[in-house]
Amino acid sequence: MSQVNAGGLLAIDTSGPVAVIRLARPAKRNAINDALIAELHTTFINLPEHVRAAIIHAEGDHFCAGLDLSELHSRTVAEGIVHSRSWHAAFDQIQFGKVPVIAVLHGAVVGGGLELASACHIRVAERSTYFGLPEGQRGLFVGGGGSARVPRLIGVSRMADMMLTGRILSSEEGLATGLAQYLVEPGEGLAKAHALAERIASNAPLSNFAVMHALPRIADQSQSDGLFMESLMAAIAQGDQAAKDRMTAFLEGRAGKVKA
Ligand code: 1HE
Questions:
Q1: How close is the Cα of 63 to the center of ligand 1, in Å?
Q2: CATH number for the domain including 227?
Q3: Alpha-carbon distance 182 to 178, whole Å?
Q4: Average pLDDT, the chain
Q5: 123-132 per-position pLDDT tens digit
Q6: Res 169: pLDDT
Q7: In 63, 93, 108, 206, which residue has its Cα 20 to 30 A from 172's Cα atom?
Q8: What is the pTM of this model?
């Protein structure tokens, strides 16, 4: 099924094994308002069973200008907490949802836009990409999961620098620091994401599940607890029929070799 959502904020194509979700608010630089965060949440909850990987990309010159600042000034403290929690719920559904998600980045990836990107499992940055956390300059703090996710990618000190000084990281710096795993030329991001998504979609679903759900949790645990959880997850994965079939295929010379 290919569709544009009713609010016109997202274009969603879930017809194949790779779902493609496009931020479609270029006039506002894909700034995220309440309706868009709700659409992202429901889209990722409702991904059809045949979908094996997803791509998020964006229309216009910028991936995402972050929080829609026009919605901010009338909120009370209590409403602010509920608002932040709605971003957490939506981005948790991306990070800990059904399938791995690849973000294709270009132009501004700032504030809540970087929080969205950091909830994805793989980030492909086109050379036009730049990363910023202007919350410090706007009198705000991150509220879309950035304080939990961004330091896990680049460390607390780099994030503190970005927030305190307004430092912008280029696409090359983003690649070097871990904000992006791939750097491509302008216009090439979507094709790269499709190539990666097709490889991901060909993995055993339980292996992808383990990478998405067990790996980050293990990294957050003590080594001893993490190693125990690793053993459980490894045993569950290797007991699955998909693993047995793949092992047999390799031993019978029917599976690809690991070559550079
Ligand atoms: C917006 C927003 C927005 C653009 N909220 N309306 N994010 C920021 O602090 C980034 C603010 N945006 C910018 O710095 C620039 O817009 C960009 C560098 C991203 C793009 O610049 P440019 O010259 O291409 O576009 P523009 O002329 O600035 O903006 C075009 C329109 O989009 C304009 O509206 P118009 O009605 O005058 O045409 C802008 O007002 C509108 N627009 N960005 C609302 N962010 C969960 S907590 C997360 C906290 C944060 O994310 S804080 C960071 C917020």
A1: 11
A2: 1.10.12.10
A3: 9
A4: 95
A5: 999 999 999 9
A6: 98
A7: 93
A8: 0.97
Q: Are residues 216 and 122 in the same domain?
A: no
Helices (H), the chain: 34-45, 77-95, 112-119, 135-138, 146-154, 156-165, 171-177, 189-201, 205-209, 215-220, 223-239, 241-251
Q: Would you say residue 256 lies in a domain?
A: no
Range of the domain at 218: 205-251
Asked if residue 209 and residue 196 are part of one domain, the reply reads no
Ligand 1 site, residue 66, Cβ cutoff 6 A: yes
Whether residue 120 is found in the same domain as residue 243: no
Is the dihedral angle over the CA atoms 157, 167, 70, 109 positive or is it negative?
negative
What would the pLDDT profile of 138-186 be if each residue is shown by its tens digit? 999 999 999 999 999 999 999 999 999 999 999 999 999 999 999 999 9
In a domain, 259, yes or no: no
Q: How far is the CA of 31 from the centre of ligand 1 (A)?
A: 6
Active site residues: 115, 135
Same domain, yes or no: 187 and 209? no
Ligand 1 neighbour 70 (Cβ under 6 A): yes
Q: What pLDDT sits at residue 5?
A: 66
